[in-house]
Write the structure tokens for this entry.
Amino acid sequence: MTNFVSANRIAEIGAVIGDVTRATILMTLMDGRAFSAGELAAESGVTPQTASGHLAKLTEAGLVTVHQQGRHRYFRLSSGDVAELIEGVSALIAAGPLRYRPTGPKDRAMRLARTCYDHLAGHLAVRVAENMEVRGFISLSDGTAVLSKEGRRYVCDFGVDLENPAYCRRDLCRACLDWSERRFHLGGRLGSGLLDRFVALGWLRRMPGSRALLITRAGETGFAREFAFRVGDEQGDDMGASLNTGAGRDAFEDAS
């Protein structure tokens, strides 16, 4: 039977996502890691029993998959396509009418650098993609991304294994619309490989309980050298200057 897209199916998926608790669960799973029902219940502010009911609906809709490990069950997004759906909805919300809400340190950190399922998002991700495009390593056009021969050679020399079995079920290179920047960052195997390499090099550090990523001092040097990105070097990027240097970085770590 052909799995064609129908208005009814779109409405069904919309109804599943359109619940606050289920939306919170999906946003939590955008971290890219697997969570237990208890952990997702705590993040959503509901009981484990309530969370289990919502997870059953998300699993039935094909948005979430469950992995059994011994007696424990862990949940994660079923695919990168689901992550792009959530990121796309977030971009629509960000483009809508402004609502006043004071911006806290965690909000600024999310806009600077965060995980988007299995790849890098935020201002840093967009700047990396733009730098690679200027150098002829990728081309971004109409929402698509293409890796050039020179680009493949560069990322391999940089230490990204594009043939890693962990990435092989994904497209090689995808353009993902960034909700906070309204511009494209890199997804697919290339985006996943770059994020893993940045973490392995110690340029980025994952923050406990958050999708936000911390740019380390080694990262400040590395991103400036490789991608001409300097934290806080643009107008309006005071978030980078306050969160990723000296006492500001330490204060953010304490607040997290």
